[in-house]
């Protein structure tokens, strides 16, 4: 057989496979089951962020911290500066999602300066690490519904 026959056969096979490929459709946005979710961000062996949130039709209806810790001087109940303002920033960031679609607004947390208004402690310049919060939320979504 000659070279032109193989070229023609290759071209026909390519057209056949290209013509049979399914049409690409736009991906539908992720949806989540209604219910309560729990997620954590762990660094080393320390749980730093542990949250609980409730979804209804992908909208956050409730959100709270079960645990928030950096070291021995930083916990969810700290009332002394500089940690009190940092904790308030975490609460503001998490509460920003309440009433919003998680599939559309989780990315808002990548720019906490746009949603958090609590002043940063001027002495330490302490501020939140919103990626920890995002990680804990994604962990909860990946784990699935904790309770209905």
TrEMBL record:
It comes from the Bacteria. The keyword Signal applies. PROSITE patterns: PROKAR_LIPOPROTEIN. Gene3D superfamilies: 3.90.1010.20. Residues 1-26 form the signal peptide. Keywords: Signal. This is FMN-binding domain-containing protein.
């Amino acid at each position: 057989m000659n070279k032109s026959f193989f070229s023609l056969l290759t071209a026909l096979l390519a057209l056949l496979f290209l013509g049979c490929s399914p049409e690409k459709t736009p991906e539908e946005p992720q949806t989540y089951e209604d219910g309560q979710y729990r997620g954590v961000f762990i660094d080393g062996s320390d749980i730093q962020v542990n949250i609980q949130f409730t979804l209804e039709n992908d909208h956050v209806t409730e959100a709270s911290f079960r645990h928030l810790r950096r070291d021995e001087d930083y916990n969810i109940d700290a009332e002394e500066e500089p940690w009190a303002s940092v904790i308030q920033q975490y609460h503001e960031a998490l509460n920003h999602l309440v009433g919003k679609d998680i599939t559309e607004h989780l990315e808002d947390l990548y720019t906490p300066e746009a949603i958090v208004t609590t002043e940063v402690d001027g002495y330490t310049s302490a501020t939140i690490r919103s990626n920890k919060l995002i990680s804990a939320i994604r962990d909860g979504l990946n784990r699935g519904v904790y309770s209905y």
